[in-house]
Amino acid sequence: MNDSQLMHAMSIDDTYRVEQVLARGEGGITELVTIDGAGPFVRKKMRQELARRNVWSALTECSSPRLPRVEATYELPEHFVVVYDFVPGQSLSKRIEQSGPLTPKDATSLGIELCEAAGELHKHGIIHRDISPNNIVIAADGAHLIDLGIARMCVEGASKDTTSLGTWGYASPEQYGFAQTDARSDVYSIGRILGFALTGIRPDDEAYEHALEDALKGTSAKLEHAIRRACSFEPSARFQSATEMAEELTGLPCPESGERCPNTGEQTASANMQAQSQKPKATSVESKWQVASRLLFRIVLACAILAGLLTIGGIAISSFQAAREKAAAPHPRHKAASPAVPRPRPRQIRRAMRAT
User: Fold this and answer.
1) pLDDT band at 175 (very low <50, low <70, confident <90, very high)
2) pTM for this entry
3) Range of 200's domain?
4) What is the tally of structural domains in the chain?
5) pLDDT reported for residue 297
6) Same domain, residue pair 138 and 151
């Protein structure tokens, strides 16, 4: 970037007026800004080495109204800057905190809207990797998916990707280094979001599974099957795309009214019986996977802590042994005394002289 480009970028940056700091961390700062009376917008400044420019470039090609619309990008000496539209509303976490869990009907609609947003990202090769309650805004027109801070482009053939873990409890197992993340990783997170929306309890809480079973009582067996399948430990057992998951959620019967969610027809008796027959199997199998995934996460965390303690202990022992050896070694100024040589006696001297 030459001097004229830098000066132009800095002049653009100075034009924005900061209304509020939304977040600040080691990776950068996120602000609510306006410009010449227009806005508000979200301005995200990321450290140069952490910025994924290809993600933001691909986002400009996305057309879903449930995703941020990029207004501008520019480079500063130490930061890559993205300006995108601000969505007025309430985060899902705040909504649940204030009003309690969603009804099955509202949770199903939420899932369909999130699948729409994620599906558009996946169509352009973007994996969000941090679909969590704090990154979902509930606006007047429904759910919006925001904050692509750790999103990445899907890389074909990679065995694993970076160590950006996402939000604990919502991040897929492969985000902990077991495999590469792909569209099915976001599907997993959406399934966890639905569980949280129905229970108001984080998926990594010990009370989550029991609360989810209670929340699903009296609902469609298909809704439970959709959540369990989306949250399968193995990616191959999940919905293979957000679009496939949306198709499963679309048309689920809503217990409150007996009606079906948008874009559906009547549910046949045979389909209902088939769903009921699948319910016990889905519950038992997928519950075991949930338990296994939580157990695996805890084992990985415990191993990491143990490795750190062993490393610290090894360093301490080595330092202690080195100090003892140093203390035991003779000081260079104090040389070891030479063995005493007996002085000859006078009688021995006289005998020696006579002998000669």
Assistant:
1) confident
2) 0.70
3) 90-303
4) 2
5) 60
6) yes
| Residues annotated as part of the active site | 130
Residue 265 has pLDDT above 50, yes or no: no
Which domain-ending residue is among 303, 327, 343? 303
Clarify whether residues 56 and 102 are in a common domain: no
Write the pLDDT tens digit of every residue in 193-238.
Answer: 999 999 999 999 999 999 999 999 888 888 999 999 999 999 999 9
| Mean pLDDT across 52-72 | 95
Residues 260 and 138 in one domain: yes
Q: Please report whether residue 337 resides in a domain.
A: no
- SS3 string, the chain, reads CCHHHHHHHHHHHHHCEEEEEEEEECCEEEEEEEECCEEEEEEEEEEHHHCCHHHHHHHCCCCCCCCCCEEEEEECCCEEEEEEECCCCEEHHHHHHHHCCCCHHHHHHHHHHHHHHHHHHHHCCEECCCCCHHHEEEECCEEEECCCCCCEECCCCCCCCCCCCCCCCCCCHHHHCCCCCCHHHHHHHHHHHHHHHHHCCCCCCCCHHHHHHHHHCCCCHHHHHHHHHHCCCCHHHCCCCHHHHHHHHCCCECCCCCCECCCCCCCCHHHHHHHHHHHHHHHHHHHHHHHHHHHHHHHHHHHHHHHHHHHHHHHHHHHHHHHHHHHHCCCCCCCCCCCCCCCCCHHHHHHHHHHC
CATH assignment at residue 263: 1.10.510.10
Any domain includes 109: yes
Residues 66 and 214 reside in one and the same domain: no
Tokens of 277: 């027959």
Task: Please indicate, yes or no, if residue 244 is contained in any of the structural domains.
Answer: yes
Which of these three, 255, 277, 303, is where a domain ends? 303
pLDDT tens digit sequence for 123-135: 999 999 999 999 9
